Amino acid sequence: QEKSCRLSAALFGEDCEISHDQLYELLKYAALGKCHNATQPNWCRIYHQSQLAGVVVIVLHEMSQLHFYKFYLQFKHLRKAFRHRFTLTPSGNFLASLYGEGANRKSQTTAQGLTSTSSECIPKSSDLQCDPIIRKYGEKKRGLTSYTLTLEEQKKNYYPIRGSPGCKGYVDTECDEQRTDSSPLFGLDCEMCLTAKGNEVTRVSLVDAQGQCLLNELVKPESTVVNYRTRFSGITKKMLLPVKTRLSDIQTRLKKMLPHDAVLVGHSLNADLQALEMIHPSVIDTSLLFARNEGRRFKLKFLAKAVLGKEIQCEQKLGHDPAEDARAALELAQFFIEQGPAKVAELNLEMLLTTEKLAEVSQNKAVLKPQGCRAQKQLNEPPYLSKPCFLDCLQVTGQKPLLLGRQELDSSGLCQGKPSASNKQILQRALEDVPLSTFSIIQFSLGPDYIAAHGLAGLREEVRSKLTDMLTIYAGPFEENFCLKSVKKEFGRCGPIQSLTVVTETYQPYVCIQYEVLEAAQLAVESLNGAEVAGSCIKVQRPVTAAMLDCEVLIKELELDVENEGVIYVAGLKKTLTEMDLEEEFSQLKDLETLFLPTDLQNGKHRNCCFLKFQKSESAADALGAINGWTMQGSKLRSRNALASGHLWRWIQQMNHSNGKQGGNILHEKMDQLSDLEQDLKKKVKKLDHHIKKLYRSLQNNTLCVVLFPGVN
What we know:
The chain is an alpha/beta fold. Helix content is about 35%, strand content about 20%. Among the domains are: about 5-55 and about 70-100, no CATH class; about 140-340, Nucleotidyltransferase, domain 5 (2-Layer Sandwich).
C-alpha cells in the first residue's frame, strides 16, 4: 500500500500558540526534507515527507485572528477543512523571511538555512583570507581524509596513541585499513561521572552517517561515584542501580561494530576516547575542525544552533543527551565536508558568537521587564536568529517557487505572476500554475477599501464586545433579600466567574455574571434556566442585542468546529485538584488522550474546570454521559461539548485581561452606520472562503496547505 504523507500536531489548550521560528521550521522541513539537511520540527511531525506532493501557503493579506472570529460564520470551508489551528505570536516581519517582501538586504544563505541579513555580518573576500578556517584548510572543497587529525595533532590534543606510556591497558579498535573519502563516519559521545578513580564513563552513544543510533548504553563504573554531575551528565544514582554493563563490555561491542576503515567524529573526542580507554587511529574533532584563533574552541551547543539551526543541550532537559550530541557533531562534520571551508568561513561564526553573547546580556537585563516588552524583544533579536528569505533557500536547491498576489512582492528571480486585479484572477492563475510548482504562495486580499474603513482598534473592540456578551448571562428575578453567596456558588459550578454584579434597575433584583470561558456561560443557560436558585425559580439568558441575535447559530457552529472534535468541557472541580489528581480520577474513561487544566493568566492558579480530549468522538460522547452527575471529592460535576478548547480559550482570556471587565454594547450605535459596508464585507469574505475551498479541492493528495492570517505585524 502506498504511504501517504500526513501531519500530526498534538498541541492542546495553552500550547496552541506557535512562534515565527516554529512555523518556519515546519515549512522548511516540508519543502526541503532530509535530503537538504532540514530537520523534523520539534512541535509537530510530518510523516513520510518524501511522499509530499507540494506545499501551498495561502496568505490572507493584512487579515488576522480578529478577522477570523469576526467572520467566523462566513469562513465555513476554512474552519471545517483545516483541523490544525494555531495562534502565531507577533514577531519581526514573518512574510519578509518567507518571501522577501520589503526586504532591501540580500540574504546570505546556506544549505542548512542560517543567514546573516546584516551586511556587517557577511565577510568580504579579503577578510576570508584571514579566517583561521581558510588559513588551515584553504578555500577549496576536500574529501573527509583532509579533515582527519594527523598523528602530531592527536598527540598535541592528548588523544590516546599506540605505544604512549599513558595508554597502557587501553583497547585498540584495530581499524587499520587505509582511509578514503568514502570511508564511513560514526558520531561518538560519552557522559562521565566523577569517581574515586577520576572521570569514568557512565553512558555511551554511537550514531551512523544517517544519524541512526547504533548504541546508547548506560555503563556501571568500576569505582564508587563521588559526583554524578547530573546537571551535565543526566545520570542519577537510581539510573545506575540496575545496570550490569561494564566498560569492558562496551569496548568489546564498539570493536565489533566499527568497520576497519571507520572514521570517528566527536566534539573534543579525546576526552571520550580517554574515558573509554580506547585507541582509534582516524578521528575528526569538530572542536578543532571549526578552527578559531589563539587555540580557542566553539562549544558544540553554539555550532549546532549557528550552523545546523538545531537547539541541543536545552536547559529544560536533565543533563546532556549523548546521542543528540553525537548526531550534532556528525552533522557538523558532514556539513563542513559537503559545503567546504569557504562556505563555512562565510558564516562568520565569530561575529555570530559575539552577537549571541550580546543578546544574552540584553535578555538578562530584560528579565525584570513586564510582559509588554515581549513583542519588542522579538523585533530586536540578533541578526543570526532571523531566518533567510525562504524562497531563496528553495532556489539554492533548484526549486522554482510560485508567487501570486495582488501586492507586488519583492523577490528577484522567482516564478512570479503579474499583479492581478482581483482575487478571482489570482485563483484562476493558481488553479493553472500550482500543480506545476512544488512550493506556492498565493496571496488574497479584501482590498484597501476594507482596510481603510475598518481600523484595527475598532475591529478589536467590536470582536471583544461580542465575545464579552457571549460570556455574559443575566439570571433572575430573585427575592429582595436573596443570598448572593448561594447564587455565586451555584453558578460557579458551571465554571470560573470573571465578575458578578447585582442589577438593581429592575423591579426585582437580577444578577449579571460574566464567565471566563464560553462553555461555562452556555452550561449556565442550559442547566440553570428554570431552576430554583436561592429560593427563586429563575430565568437565565444572555444579553439581547443586535450583535447577539445569531448567538445560538454561532454556538452550534463552534460546537461542530473540527478543532473541538472529541473534546469535552468539565466544570465543578475543586481548585485544590492537580493535573495528576485529575488524570487519576479520569483514567477509567476510554480513549482519553489529553487533559488540559486552564490556569489564570495573572496569578497562575488553576481554574475549577478542565478540557478532556479523546481519540474518538464516540468515546467523548460516552464520557459526557458518564461525567454528568459524577461527584468528585464532594463536588458535583457538570460537562458539555467544548466550544473553545484550543487557542480561542487563551485568546479570550487575553482580550478580557487587556480590556477590563466592562460589557459590550459600546459600538452598536456606530456599527449601525456601517451596516451596508458590513453586509458587503460578509459577502466578500464568503467569496474568499469559496476561493480557498476551490483551490484546496484542486490540490493533489499529500499536499501540505497552510492558511496564514498575518495581521499587520
